[in-house]
Amino acid sequence: MRSKNEPSGQSGAGRDERESQEPERSFIEKARRAQIIDAAVGTIAAKGFAKASLAQIAERAGISKGVISYHFAGKGELIERVVEQVYEEIGAFVRARLDERAGATVWLRVYIESVAEYMLGHRTQLTALGEIFSHFRTADGAPRYGVASSEPLYVALEAVFLEGQRSGEFRAFDVRVMAVSLQAGIDNMFAYWTAHPGHDLTAYARELAGIFEHATRADRTERIERTERTDHH
C-alpha cells in the first residue's frame, strides 16, 4: 500500500502524471485478466478441471503464477470469472440476433438456435463449462453451479413467457416450469453434442425450438377467447 501523503516536491506534477497513466494501466490490467481467463478456458478444456492448476494456466498464458495471484484471489475466483465472461459473450451474440420488434414466438426460436450457433464455433468454451459445472464445488462440497445458481436465467425466461401470454401468442402455463424445462433442454442438447460431436447441433437446435413452439403456443380456440375478452373490455 502506498502512503496517502505525497512525497516531498511531487504533490502536483507527480500526481498529474500518475493520474494520466490510470486509463493506460486500467486497459493493460483488463487485457491481462482477459488473457488469463482465455488461458484458463483452454487449460480446463484440454486437461480437465482437476488438473487445471494455476501453474498450468500460467504456463499456457506465458506468465508467472504470481501474475494470476495479482489479478485473482485464487482459482475459485478465476473460475467464476471464466463462467461470467462466457455467459456475457453468449448474451451479446444472442442479443445481436434478436429483433426487439419480434414477438415471443420468434424470440424463443432465435434464442435457442443462436445459443447453439455460438457454441458451434466455441467448442473449447463449451468443454470448459462442462468441466466446471461437473466438478467445481463450494467450500462445503456442494456444486457451485446448478439449479440454484440459474435463478437469474429462469427469471429472464419467465419474463419472455409472460409477455407471450399477455400478447396471446402463448397458452396459459406455469412459466417457471417452462423456463426450467427450456434451460434443461438446452443444457442436455450441449451435453449430447459433447458426447456425440458428430451429431448435427444445428438440426438439434431447430428441432428443440420446434418442440417448445408447440409446447407454448396458444391454440385457435384460446386465441379467439382472448380476443373476445379484449373486445368486451
UniProtKB/TrEMBL annotation:
Keyword line: DNA-binding, Transcription, Transcription regulation
Start-end of Polar residues biased regions: 1-10
Record's compositionally biased regions (Basic and acidic residues): 14-25
Annotated stretches, region: Disordered: 1-25
InterPro entries: DNA-bd_HTH_TetR-type_CS (IPR023772), Homeodomain-like_sf (IPR009057), HTH-type_TetR-like_transc_reg (IPR050109), HTH_TetR (IPR001647), Tet_transcr_reg_TetR-rel_C_sf (IPR036271)
DNA-binding region residue numbers: 53-72
Highest rank taxon of the organism: Bacteria
Start and end residues of each HTH tetR-type domain: 30-90
PANTHER family from the UniProt entry: HTH-TYPE TRANSCRIPTIONAL REGULATOR BETI, HTH-TYPE TRANSCRIPTIONAL REGULATOR RUTR
Name the record gives this protein: TetR family transcriptional regulator
